[in-house]
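TL;DR need C-alpha cells for one chain.
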Amino acid sequence: MRAVLPIALLLAPAGAHIDREWFRQALIGETAHWRDAAATPSGFFQPSLDRQWRPVGEQTGTLVSQCRLLFVMATGYRVTREPGYLAALSQGADFLLAHFRDPEYGGWFWSVSPQGKVLDASKDSYGHAFVIFGLSHAAEVTGQERYRQAALETWAEMKAHLRDRAGFIKPRTTRDFNQVRGTNSQNPMMHLFEALLALHDATRSRAVLQDAHALVDAIFGKLFEVRGGYLPELYDADWKPLPAAQRGYLELGHQFEWAFLLSHAVEKGFPRRYLALGQGLLDYGMKVAYDPEAGGIFSRGDYQGGAVRGPKGWWEQAEFLRALMHYATLRKRADLWAPFDRSLEFVKRQFIDPDYGGWYGSYDPKTPTEGRRAYKGSVWMVGYHVSGMYAEALRLSRRR
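>> reply
TL;DR here they are.
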C-alpha cells in the first residue's frame, strides 16, 4: 500500500524536485570529463581512468565501452552543441566500424586494443545490443547514413545468428556463431530492447518497432515471474530461472531499468498494458530494494523478496533515480518524490566526487572510502548510466 502523503507534497510540481540547472551542469561536467579523458585522435575510447581522470594500465576497448561512449558523446553534443563532442562521436563511430567489425563472419568482435588489434573475437549479444544503441545515437546526431545502416545490419545479424530455438538471445558465441558460451540472462535482451527503441528513433522503421514489441512480449510472456512480480536475472538452457544454489538472483537495479523502458515504450505508442508491468516492477523494487534510512537502493535480491544489504553500486542508483523522476513526473506518482529527494541527496553525498567530479563506483559504509575512490572509469563504468539519468531529468524538466 502506498503511503498517504500531505496534500502540499501531492500537489508539488516536478520543478520543486528537479533542479534543471543543477542537472544541466552535472550532465555537462560528466560528458566533458569523458570527452577530455577518454577520446583519442584515432577514435579509440580509453575506458580505464583513475580518480583524477588519468588513463591507467593497459587500455582495452570492448563493444560496451566503445559504444556506451558514443552515447555519452552524443548526449554531450545534444546539451552543449560543442563541436568537440561531434568530432569525438564521429571518430569513435568510425573506429568501431574499422576495427570491431568482423569482415569474415559478420557481427562484431568483443574487444580490441587501442591500435585496433583484435583481442577477443567472440560474439557477445550484450555487446551487439550496444552497437545498435551507440550507432543509432551516432546516426541521429550526425545524420550519417553509414552509422544508421550499420545499426540495421547488426540487428539483422543478431536475428540470423544470435537467436536460439526458444526465440530468445544467446549470451555469447564463438566467432563463427556456432558454439554458445555463457549463461542465459535477461540482461542482453533488456539492452537490446533499449537499443531497438533507439534504432526506431534513428530510422522510424515500423519493422524495428514491431521487433521491439515482439521481443518484450516474449520476455514478459515467458520469463516474468507473475506471482512474485519480478524478472529474474539468470536462466538455465531451457530458460528456467536458475535456483539460488546455482547463482540465481535478482538484479534489483534492472527492475527499475525495465520500469523506465516500459513506460518510455508506452510514450512511443506501445500498449498501455506495458505501463502496468512497469508500475509493478517499480513497486516491487521500492518494496525490496529501497533503503528508506540512508536513501538509494541495494543491488541484489533473492526470490523471497529480500535484499542483500551490501555495497550499493553506482549504476543502480542512476537507474533508480531515473525511474523515480520519470514516474513521478509523467505517471503522476507523487509518492515517489520523497524517496527521490532523499536518494538524490544520498548520491550527492556518497557517489559524486567533490574534488575531481564524476561518480565513484560503489558505496559501502563498512569499507574504507579509499577503496571506492580508486578509479573513475573501466570497460563497464563509462558514463552511460549517469548521463542517461541526467538527460532524462532535463527532458522531464522541459515537459512539466
